[in-house]
């Protein structure tokens, strides 16, 4: 039975327990490119498209968190209640591929692939999201910043599937910015998510390291300043410190030098936007 | 090689049997090569060009990035299913009358994207049209005429609903 299409989470994890080497398939927007170009030859697939539980999302105002199921597509995050609760995620979602890709691609897929260029991942990092993994052993909750362990590598065990994510809402500004060669349908050359929560800044970088990178030194420097007002020199210094914490490489999409520069500019810009609000 | 796949897809309101297929076949491939529906076009095979746009449970998606065997249980609609009697839809008529068709390769995908856009947003702004069609590439670069066709449909539909 090479393709299995469970309709419930319990049957999905049961199937996965029996065939832990099966390819988990969500929107297919990464995986099918590899199949179409003969880089992957699937032999056993568990398609998660019809699993009802994975399509749920909810906003909990008591805990100030948002739960998003693994199969919720980006198009749902771009507008409406989810966008109001998590503006940075909405901005990141809107930069993913094209409308057709956003109607198919999911957070679960982004987490499963775990590319350093995954557009939603800097948001999950900056907001200290928790990844929920389901298996026949029960649920395991892993902070996103421990979940991603390398380029396209995560700490999901073979018999586990990503069931969803819980994302804390920030008390203040949150924003996402990305550089690519053009405006539509690009894989990020560099991206930044910045959030202000209880007067503390958090910043996470995409496409400039083997994983999404938080910038603990820049964050601490800024938070220790306790600045009431943001001057240009503070914002610029913050950007320089963020740049210093990036670990980019040269590749076919850009150079390390440009990426290091770009994340500094984006971090400065987002901090200024945050304080302008 | 994995064993061959047999499954049924719901395409344009009909149940269509697919026999002896390979697991990795995309929905685009199955539509064109197995089900005799060549309206959806294949070009980039990586979700960049939009020429393979179909509706899946009402959402416009790239059929080249849907694993066909995983689409069992989903409602699929192709450009052939827009008007099953073979007549042109108002969007297709507008593409003809506004000169939005040059080589024609991108046209089916764009027609699907425009139908989807106007279903969601009957009176879109210029920016909304551009964003909605950003996943459909016309390499004859005839975008001006395509936007004019969208405007024409919007005007006619507004007139009709008065």
UniProtKB/TrEMBL annotation, chain A:
Record's keyword annotation contains Cytoplasm: no
SUPFAM superfamilies, per database record: CO dehydrogenase flavoprotein C-terminal domain-like, FAD-binding/transporter-associated domain-like
MF terms (GO), sorted A to Z: FAD binding; oxidoreductase activity
InterPro entries registered for this protein in UniProt: CO_DH_flav_C, CO_DH_flav_C_dom_sf, Diverse_Substr_Oxidored, FAD-bd_PCMH, FAD-bd_PCMH-like_sf, FAD-bd_PCMH_sub1, FAD-bd_PCMH_sub2, Mopterin_DH_FAD-bd
Boundaries of every FAD-binding PCMH-type domain copy: 1-172
Keyword tags: FAD, Flavoprotein, Oxidoreductase
Protein name, as recorded: Unannotated protein
From TrEMBL, chain B:
One matching Pfam family: Fer2
Entry keyword set: 2Fe-2S, Iron, Iron-sulfur, Metal-binding, Oxidoreductase
Gene3D superfamilies the record matches: 3.10.20.30, [2Fe-2S]-binding domain (1.10.150.120)
Every 2Fe-2S ferredoxin-type domain range: 5-82
TM annotation in the entry: none
GO MF entry, a single one: 2 iron, 2 sulfur cluster binding
SUPFAM superfamilies tied to this protein: 2Fe-2S ferredoxin-like, CO dehydrogenase ISP C-domain like
PANTHER family linked to this entry: OXIDOREDUCTASE WITH IRON-SULFUR SUBUNIT (PTHR44379), XANTHINE DEHYDROGENASE IRON-SULFUR-BINDING SUBUNIT XDHC-RELATED (PTHR44379:SF8)
Name of this protein: Unannotated protein
Lineage: unclassified sequences, metagenomes, ecological metagenomes
